[in-house]
What we know:
The protein is of the alpha+beta class. It has helices spanning 3-23, 25-28, 45-57; strands at residues 36-41, 65-70. The two termini are 27 Å apart.
Amino acid sequence: MTMNSFGGFVAFLSSEFHRYLMEHDEQAARVPANALVIFDVAGEKAFSRWHRETSLKNREPGQPVVEVHVGKLRRHSAMENVELAAVSA
């Protein structure tokens, strides 16, 4: 993974983490409002270092920080019955 792809990976992780929290109320209750979420992904040392450094540089004064340690990512989509209605170039 390159730094150019880190932004897309953050978007993916954020989306998946949001879905995880929707399914795990007890964990969601532990995340304060306006928390800065920092992802630490097993096997993605360069990404994890970059995300921590970039996130902390942009942290608001007094903003709570939540570290999310991701041990494993699934390699398949959770979507079912998907159709593309129209595609244009």
